[in-house]
Every structure is written in structure tokens, then in C-alpha cells.
Write the C-alpha cells for this entry.
Amino acid sequence: MSTFRAVVIDKTEAGQTCGFRELTDSDLMDGDVTVRVTHSTVNYKDGLAITGKAPIARRFPLVPGIDLAGIVESSESPEFKPGDAVILNGFGVGEGHFGGYAGRARLKSEWLVRKPEGFTAAQCMAVGTAGFTAVLCVQALERFGLTPDRGPVVVTGAAGGVGSVAVALLAKAGWHVVASTGRPQEAEYLKGIGAAEIVDRAEFTGQVRPLAKERFAAGVDSVGSTTLANILSMTKYHGAVAACGLAGGMDLPATVAPFILRGVALLGIDSVMSPRAERIAAWDRLAKDLDKDQLAAMTTTIPFDAVIEAGRDIVQGKVRGRLVVEIGA
């Protein structure tokens, strides 16, 4: 039986371990489709799993990697056949089910989406869960009825994966994008992908007032905690903030004032269990509106050997934009 390389997280009496191992198909978990993985990516959640800084791994041993792209090798599902190019993000893969940091993955067919026309497998992973989450945020703001003529939109964690794609998509849609970052050296990068203004994240980390001066018609927040609370207090009447992350913490030290005095809405965004119809619509939007040159500008490609180190780097805030991992390309 042939073997393939995989990153495996395990738990011992001394604590969590993470390293490369050789696996076989008999090690894979249940599913009706087996995929030869060609590419993956590194999201913040992957970094948390690799480092053990949050309880992302729900079983041990575990192959991490919440995103993957590859080619179907075998299928018991009538929906897919060998040779089909597919992608996956979410559904607990890389958390409770073996994920994308391996040469092969056995998956449930309902978790898979055909690779969108107009994207290569590598480009799909350049988007990944981070970009997929970003477009869900943009679509949520649009469903709420917000348009660029209402005023500026703020994007927190703008130099990260979610933030970078959100900046590009919102700029494409005509918004005046205010990019919040703690890395002033990334200002030119952010302007290059569409940001109109760059602000220091420190503006949103101070003491939260129940209501602050109205500054933004909308927001996309991947930070949470005090940052999200401050953004809410600065959101204009009948504005909305799409919240999708917790890099700054899970707490929300806010008051009800923005909600009951300004009619502000907090829109929660979940990408993990997003239904297939929503996924397909989101990927269609990305294929149509995400500029490929901008996507390339925000993407760095790394070899499989570097994925563990990259997971540590992303948790430490050292990663700009998106990382594509070449698994078996």
C-alpha cells in the first residue's frame, strides 16, 4: 500500500505535538470521496491548531488544514467521478476530520464543491477560508442594504487573510475602504489592493465608550473583543458590522447603546457550516469580482515542508495576506 506525507497533531502526557508522518489510505477517516490533495493554505485557525493555542483540534491524532484543493481519485458518490477538480473549506475538516495537510484526504461528498471556472487550484487556496469568509461578510452587508454612498467601510486586521480579500472586494464594489492594521509597514500593500485610508489599530483598542463619533457606515471585523466594541460605537445610524473572527479575543465589552440608539446591526458570519448553495454563490462572486492581479499581490506560495512554521508565524501576526501550500502539485 502506497504511503503519503501528512502533518499530524497528537497529544501526549507532555502536551500537544505536531510533525510530519507517513500515512496510508487505511489511516484516513470515513467518506465517500478520496481526493489527491494538490494545494492547501494557512488560515489563522490552522495556526491555532498547529500551535495548540486554542482547542481547535477536537480529536487526536488529527491531520490539520481546514482548506484543500485537489483531484478526485475515487468516488462512491454519483456527484463526483475520478479526475474531477474539487475544493473544500469548513465542515469541521482539519478540526474533527482529517484535513488538507496530507497527500490524500477521504471526505464526504456533500462537503465538496467543484473548482470554480476561472480559478486554478492554487488561486482557490489563495482565497481559501479567509477569502470565502470575506465575501460572506461583504454579501451580508449588501443584504442589509448598505451601499458605498452611505459612507466609508472599515476593515480590521486588514493585512491578514480575511482583511486583505475584504479590502479588495469592497474597493471593487466602490466603497471608500478604511484599512485598520497594526503593521504600518503594510500601508503600500493595502493601498495597492484598494484601501483608501490606513489607520492604526490602536485607534480601536482603547477604552470603549457607549457611543463614539459616527465614522463608518459599515465594517468587516476579524478581531473581536475591544476592537469590535469600538467599531460598533463608531458605526453610523442604521449601519452594520459583519463580525467573523476573534484574533483579539472572544469577549465583547460593549453596551447596547449602538443597537438601540443608532439602530446598528451586528451581523455574525459563519463560514464553517455554510450551505452549499451559499458556497457556490460566494465562489461565483469571488471568481467574478476578485482581481487576479490583486490576489497574486496578496499571496505567497510555500512548500509543504514549511507549513508548520507558517502556522506558528500566522498566530504571531507575521503573515501578510494569503499563503498557498503546495502539497502535491
